[in-house]
Amino acid sequence: MKAIIFTHEYPPFLGGAGSVARNIFGQRCCLNKSGIDLFVFHAKYSEEVIQEGEAIYARSFLGDLYSVVKFIFCLFRYDIIIANDKRYHKLGAFLNLFGMSNKVIYFMHGQELESIKSSLFRVVYKRALRSAKNVVFVSEFLRRKIGDELGRDYRSSVLRNTSKFESFVTTPLSSPIRSKSLLTVSRLVPQKGLLRMVDLYIELVKFYPELEWHIVGDGPLFSQIKDATAGLNVTMHGALHGESLAALYQHCSVNWLLSEYEESFGLTFLESASFGVPSIAYSGDGAEEVLRRCRGLVLDSNSPNKHIVNSIAFFLENMPVPALVVEGASFYSSAAMVSEFVKAVGDE
């Protein structure tokens, strides 16, 4: 079987779509043993887009004629076409009007349906999803959420992402001996709940004067957070990747992000759990699935700050054993991802 992933974000930059494509493609040797020859088609985004932090989908999906021609060409040359992000979802939905998308599998990462403003194209898109070979979601939460809108008359499955830090992890500690320190890995935008987190951290410091907070990421709130935490034990790292980020995961005791978004999947929480580091987040979305499996703390976003501070303080005093956190993260292994991918692209 020949399969190809069409993805605009590759390598990963802003969201989970590029990460899913990278992690699947990274297992192509294992997939070959299962009879799947996997290829990736992607469009490199410019350095200007990276520096300005603009959405990678800013260009019209028809702007790159070669991508359109390549997509259509592959419908005749490949057994499976995977539309990994919104750009290629639109193209697949358009081609479905002409009966040309029976080989297409749509990977859903969270905002695809919500981002379509045209009521007419929304109908076209939903019809394409119902008639697709498969619709693959990154979490059970997302499958339930979108499934309520699509109904039951379509094929679906779940493909959970894996941590890119699997190879970094050694035998976990038997007891939590790290110093108390917080870590946040996120785009620094208001919707990620960071301003409330600043207020909560200031209250937590009253309990733990030496409590560190390491913030990884860039965005419009960078300067505001830096000014608001001046004089406190807060380090703004900017964007980090690879071994530098792995070192922070190993250094910190808790990963927290109180996002106001409905997160489709808690990838950063899974990454920290790979190092035996538990996480703190709100309930009610895809991140909760990872937290509960990996011994994290799940909070109610409607709780007052005082209650949340007390809950976090209690959690810091009663940390789960790192080995158990890593055990939970092992559910999202590369081997499990390969198995789910093989099922997703196979026949019913």
Rounded radius of gyration (Å): 21 Å
Distance between the ends = 15 Å
Structural class: alpha/beta
Instruction: State the order of secondary-structure elements, H for helix, E for strand.
Output: EHHEHHEHEHEHEEHEHEHEHEHEHHH
The count of helical stretches stands at 15
The number of domains is 2
DSSP strand tally? 12
> Ranges with pLDDT <50 over ≥5 residues?
45-63
Q: What CATH architecture label of the largest domain applies?
A: 3-Layer(aba) Sandwich
* Topology-level CATH name of the largest domain: Rossmann fold
CATH class of the largest domain: Alpha Beta
Shape: elongated
How would a crystallographer describe the biggest sheet? 6 strands, parallel
| Fraction in helix | 40-55%
Strand order of the largest sheet: 2-1-3-4-5-6
Mean pLDDT: 86
Sheet-strand content, in percent, reads 15-25%
Give the CATH superfamily of the largest domain. Answer: Glycogen Phosphorylase B
Quick rundown:
It contains 15 helices and twelve strands. It is of the alpha/beta class. It has two domains: 174 residues, Glycogen Phosphorylase B (Rossmann fold, 3-Layer(aba) Sandwich), CATH 3.40.50; 166 residues, Glycogen Phosphorylase B (Rossmann fold).
How would you portray this structure in words?
- The chain has 348 residues and is α/β, with parallel strands linked by helices.
- The chain folds into 2 domains: 174 residues, Glycogen Phosphorylase B (Rossmann fold, 3-Layer(aba) Sandwich), CATH 3.40.50; 166 residues, Rossmann fold.
- The protein contains 15 helices and 12 strands.
- The strands form 2 sheets. It has a 6-stranded parallel beta sheet with strand order 2-1-3-4-5-6, sandwiched between helices.
- Strand 3, helix 5 and strand 4 form a beta-alpha-beta unit.
- Helix 5 crosses helix 6 and helix 8 packs across helix 13.
- The radius of gyration is 21 Å and the shape is elongated.
- 41% of the residues are buried.
- About 5% of the residues have low confidence.
